[in-house]
From TrEMBL:
Keywords: Repeat, Signal, TPR repeat. TPR repeats lie at residues 100-133. This is Tetratricopeptide repeat protein. Residues 1-19 form the signal peptide.
Length: 184
């Protein structure tokens, strides 16, 4: 009987340890619509509301466990516990390796520690999973600026601004703004 109880406890522990993260919610249509709205927004206030909605979608984790990791990591980062935040984001990534926001948030914590090379690696992973993740693309531009790789930074910045011309990062753009749909 004792061995049966131990086996049952092991099975419960193992099943939670090997629980798989479900697929992230598919917000691609909503994000596409928001990108279009940002491109045709007539002022910064309207564009900010659109950006806030994008953040809500990016921060919508695949399940409650992933959401708890994301929220905890962001809370630690906001409290300047960057090492703790990175550790929690690593747990999130281990659990949900296909969730772009885990990489983006981990990159941001590394960026704040001025660990630009590491941040860039994480941003590239986020962008590979979510090619129109404007925050990751603009974060990549800022990270490349931190690495003094200005030409590459300008390419990333132009890509981000083509998706949302109202980004605050536009102040770092050299030359003219990319054309938006309203310019066509």
């Amino acid at each position: 009987m004792k061995s049966y109880v131990i086996a049952a406890l092991f099975a419960c522990t193992a099943s939670s340890a090997f629980a798989q993260c479900p697929a992230a919610p598919d917000h691609s249509l909503q994000l596409s619509e928001l990108i279009t709205s940002a491109q045709i927004a007539t002022d910064e206030r309207a564009a900010q509301a659109i950006s806030n909605r994008m953040w809500e979608l990016w921060a919508d984790a695949p399940d409650a466990r992933a959401q708890a990791f994301l929220d905890e990591g962001m809370s630690r980062r906001e409290g300047y516990d960057f090492a703790g935040a990175i550790s929690v984001f690593e747990d999130l990534i281990a659990y949900c390796p296909n969730y772009a926001e885990g990489y983006n948030q981990k990159a941001f914590a590394h960026f704040l520690r001025q660990e630009y090379d590491t941040a860039l690696i994480e941003l590239d992973k986020a962008i590979a999973l979510s090619p129109n993740h404007i925050a990751a693309i603009s974060g990549k531009a800022l990270t490349l600026i931190g690495l003094q790789r200005d030409e590459e930074a300008q390419v990333a910045l132009r890509k981000a601004l083509a998706l949302n011309p109202w980004l605050k990062e536009r102040q770092f753009l050299k030359g003219e703004m990319p054309a938006t749909k309203t310019d066509l």
